[in-house]
Amino acid sequence: MATAAELQKKVRELEAKLAAALGNAGPVRQKIDVMSSEVVDSNPYSRLMALKRMGIVENYEKIRELSVAVVGVGGVGSVTAEMLTRCGIGKLILFDYDKVELANMNRLFFQPHQAGLSKVDAAASTLQAINPDVAIDAYNYNITTVDNFQKFCDTISTGSLTSSPVDLVLSCVDNFEARMAINTACNELNQRWFESGVSENAVSGHIQFIIPGETACFACAPPLVVASKIDEKTLKREGVCAASLPTTMGIVAGFLVQNTLKHLLNFGNVSHYLGYSALTDFFPAMTLRVRELQNTLKHLLNFGNVSHYLGYSALTDFFPAMTLRPNPQCDDSYCRQRQAEFRAKPVVELATEVTEDSSPVHADNEYGISLVDENSPEEETPDLKLVDGVQVAYSIPVDNSTPESSTGGAVAASELSLEELMQQMKSM
Amino acid sequence: MATAAELQKKVRELEAKLAAALGNAGPVRQKIDVMSSEVVDSNPYSRLMALKRMGIVENYEKIRELSVAVVGVGGVGSVTAEMLTRCGIGKLILFDYDKVELANMNRLFFQPHQAGLSKVDAAASTLQAINPDVAIDAYNYNITTVDNFQKFCDTISTGSLTSSPVDLVLSCVDNFEARMAINTACNELNQRWFESGVSENAVSGHIQFIIPGETACFACAPPLVVASKIDEKTLKREGVCAASLPTTMGIVAGFLVQNTLKHLLNFGNVSHYLGYSALTDFFPAMTLRVRELQNTLKHLLNFGNVSHYLGYSALTDFFPAMTLRPNPQCDDSYCRQRQAEFRAKPVVELATEVTEDSSPVHADNEYGISLVDENSPEEETPDLKLVDGVQVAYSIPVDNSTPESSTGGAVAASELSLEELMQQMKSM
C-alpha cells in the first residue's frame, strides 16, 4: 500500500487535473426555479427574457413547459440539442444508437475525450452541465427496428412534461430509413415535425416543416435538397465517407431551432421549407404564412397562382415555383387519413390581396422604390417614388380569371402534377 | 494529517470526479502531422478531406498553412473560433478582454464552470483540447486603447505561421468603437476582413467582406443590418441588455466561417454582404462574383445596370438594389488611399453575358422552366420548356444603350449618390 505522503501527492495531482478539467472550477450553475429578466452577470436567462422587452416574443417563459424530441444526435442533432438546452427548453428527448468517434470532431459539440461513449449519454451529460433546468431523457437505440419503433412511438406520444405527446419532433438523422420511420410515426400520431438534412458534399442543406395532412409528408415527395439516401455505415464499409463541415451543420441546426422557437413561441413566420446552398449563399424558402415573396414572383413572372415551394437555380437565373401539397396517392395510409381530415376542416376565407384596399401603395416603402400594383396595372400611383436611375419598365398583366381559392391556411397553388414534380426532383 | 485510508478514499473520489469531468476519459486526441483522407473512426480529418473527393475543394490541406484572427470571442466569435479549429486552421489568434459569465450561457460554446475565466483563456483551453494541431495565440486586451491598438496592428501584420500578415481578420465584436478600430487597422495594413454582427433584438444578423479600396469600408457606409452601436456595458449599467439567441449567433458564425473557407480555399462564391432575418428567413445577399441573381433582377425589373447590394423588403414586396462601392469622401485616409490604388489597377475586361454565345439557352435547366434571354428577347428559343401552367408573360425590354463598363472584378453599378444611400440607411 502507498504511503500517506505518496497518497497526499496523488491527491494534489488529481486535484490539479480536476481543476484543469473543470476549467479551474468557477461557480457551477445551480437550478433556477423561475426565469428572471434581471440583468446581472449570474442570470443565464437575461438575454433570452430580453426578447420580451424587445417585442419579439410575448411569453418566453412558456418554453419551460415545452418538450422537443431530437432524433439523431450527430453533426446537426447535437448542436440542435445544445441550442434548445441553452434556450431553456422544458424537456429534451434524445434518440441515437451511435458512438462518438474522433472522426466526428470536424463538427461542433462533441470533444475528443468523449470518443467511445454513446452519443446520447455523452450529449446528455454535457447538456445537463450546461443547463440543469432542462429535463433530459436519452434513448440509445435504433428507431427503425420493429420493437424500437413501437417504443419510439410510445415515447413521442407520452414524452411531454405532463405525459402528453411532445410538442415537436426534430429529425436530424443521416439516412433514408430513419427518416421514413419518423415520417410513419408522425403521420400515425398526427405529430408535427421538422425534417432536416445536409448533402453528402457538405455544402447544402435544408429543413422542412411537416404538418400531417396539410403539407407533403416525407413519403409524398422527397425533399428538394436530398440528404444522403445511403446509410453512412454502408459507405464507411467501402472506405469512403460523406464530407461534412461544422459550418453547414451549424447553420442547418440554427435554422431548425430558430424555426422551432418561432413555431413553439409563436413569433415571426415559420418556414415550411428552407434550403441553404453554401457555394452561392442561396436560400430557397417557402412558407404558408409569408406570401409576400411568392406574390412578388407572381407579380413579376405571372405564372398562375401563388405556389408553396420557391426555388432558385443560380445556374439558370430563374425562380421556379411548385407546390409541396400532400400527395393524394401517398403510400402512407396515415398521411392520406390526415389529408382527409385536413380537407374536412372548415374553410377560412383568406383576406384578399392587401393591395386591393384604397390606401397608398407601398406607403411604408423603406427603400423608396416601388412597382405598380397587380390589380391596377394602368393606374398612376402619385406616391410612387423611384430613386435616381430606377424606372418602372413594364406594366404587370392583369389576370382576373383565376381568383384564389382557399383551403384552410394554405393559398391556392399552381399545381404541377405529382408525376411532373417527381420527374423534376429525380432529374435534379 | 489524514490517514492513508482516508487519503485512499479521497484519491478514489477524485479519480471518479476526474473521470466524470473528462467524460469517462476516452482516448485523447494526439497531434497529427499530415491530414489524411483515410476513412477510419480515429481520423478527425476524414470528413473534411472528403471535400476533395467530392470535388468541392481542390487542396483542403492548405488550411494548415493559414492564419485567421478572431476579434471578439463572444456569442459569434467563440463559435467562429470553434468551427475554424475543427476545420483544422493552421493558426488562430484570439482577441477579447471580457470574462465568461453565466449570463453568456444562452449562446453556444462556453460552459457554466468557465464563469469568471477570461474569454480568451477559457476559449484557448477548450479549443486546444478539441484540436491540438491548431496553433492558438490569445490576447486578453481591449484593442481600442492607443497602446493596444498598436499591439493589435503589429500582431495582425506579423501573426501568420511564417510571421507574415494573417490571411484574414474576422470581426466578431459587439460595439461600434471596436469595429472602427478594426476598420482603421485593416485599411492601414491593406488587410482583408469580414465584419459581422447580430441585431439587439437577436433576430437578424449579417456578414460583410471588406477589401480595402475595392468595397465600402466600415467608415464608408454603415452595414445595412446594424449591430448594436451602443456598448453592451453601457446598457448593462442601466439594467437592460440586448437580447441574444444561440440560433442567430450560430448561423452568423456559420456564414462567417463558410465564407472564410470559400475565400481562403478558393471554392464557391464569397458573399460580400449576407444578411439574415430570422423572423421571415430572408437572406439579402450580394457578391461581386455571383452575378446571376443580380442579372435576373436586371432582366425582370430593368433598373439600369447590375448593382452590388441586393436587398429585399418583405413588407413591401420589392427587391431594392444599391451599390456598396467605397465612398470617395470616406473619413478614413487609408481607405481613400486603397481606393486610389484599386482604381489604378489594370482594367480586366469581363466576359460578356454567357447568353450571347450560340449554345442552347438554359441547356442545363434543371427545373425545366426558362425565360427568354435578355439579349434576344424576340427570338423563339426552340428548347424553351415550360411546365404545365407556367408561361412567359412578357418580353424583356432590350437595352443596348448601356453596355457594361468594367472596373477590375466589379461590375458597373447604378449608383445611388452617397447622400441618398446614407439617407436610406438612416431611415431603416
Automatic annotation (TrEMBL), chains A, B:
GO cellular component: cytosol
Keywords assigned by UniProt, alphabetized: ATP-binding, Metal-binding, Nucleotide-binding, Ubl conjugation pathway, Zinc
Alphabetized CDD domains for the sequence: ThiF_MoeB_HesA_family
PANTHER family from the UniProt entry: UBIQUITIN-ACTIVATING ENZYME E1, UBIQUITIN-LIKE MODIFIER-ACTIVATING ENZYME 5
Gene: jg11013
Protein family according to the UniProt entry: Belongs to the ubiquitin-activating E1 family. UBA5 subfamily.
One Pfam family cited in the UniProt record for this chain: ThiF
MF terms (GO), sorted A to Z: ATP binding; metal ion binding; UFM1 activating enzyme activity
PROSITE patterns from the UniProt entry: D_2_HYDROXYACID_DH_1
A Gene Ontology biological process term: protein ufmylation
Protein name: Ubiquitin-like modifier-activating enzyme 5
